[in-house]
């Protein structure tokens, strides 16, 4: 794996994790817009990187970033008294 591939995977999976965590916290119609942007980013990433290992790493790191960001955003909303 090259450095640029690793950086693209990290940045794209961070963005997808953030979009998915925001998707689960906001109301319609914003969640539809967030999911559409996430799908477009995933399609762009999968077209750019055709190696199976990069795709598996992308999905696993996206799920891990989703869990991390949902925890951080939920804690932030709880502290602010918005939940």
UniProtKB/TrEMBL annotation:
Entry's transmembrane regions: 6-23, 30-46, 52-79
PROSITE patterns recorded: PROKAR_LIPOPROTEIN
Keyword terms, alphabetized: Membrane, Transmembrane, Transmembrane helix
Protein name: Uncharacterized protein
């Amino acid at each position: 794996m090259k450095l640029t591939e690793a950086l693209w995977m990290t940045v794209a999976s961070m963005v997808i994790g953030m979009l998915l965590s925001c998707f689960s916290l906001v109301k319609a119609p914003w969640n539809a817009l967030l999911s559409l942007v996430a799908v477009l980013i995933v399609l762009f990433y999968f077209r750019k990187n055709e190696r199976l290992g990069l795709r598996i790493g992308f999905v696993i790191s996206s799920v891990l970033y989703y869990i991390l960001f949902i925890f951080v955003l939920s804690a932030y909303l709880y502290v602010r008294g918005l939940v």
